[in-house]
Amino acid sequence: MMPALRAEPRAKVNELHAVGVASGGTDEGKPGIREAYTDDFYVAYLRDPMGNKIAVFFKG
């Protein structure tokens, strides 16, 4: 299971991804549009220091 956190506005996705990586997490997908889902799905992925994958997203 992968937790997914909704963030608003879109800039918050960038901020949370950067904070997560700076706090010891690892990048699993830089912030950006993922057209494979929808053309307005903006998401970033990271792993926390324990190895759990987390998504932070904005849709709209």
UniProtKB/TrEMBL annotation:
InterPro entries: Glyas_Bleomycin-R_OHBP_Dase (IPR029068). It comes from the Bacteria. This is VOC domain-containing protein.
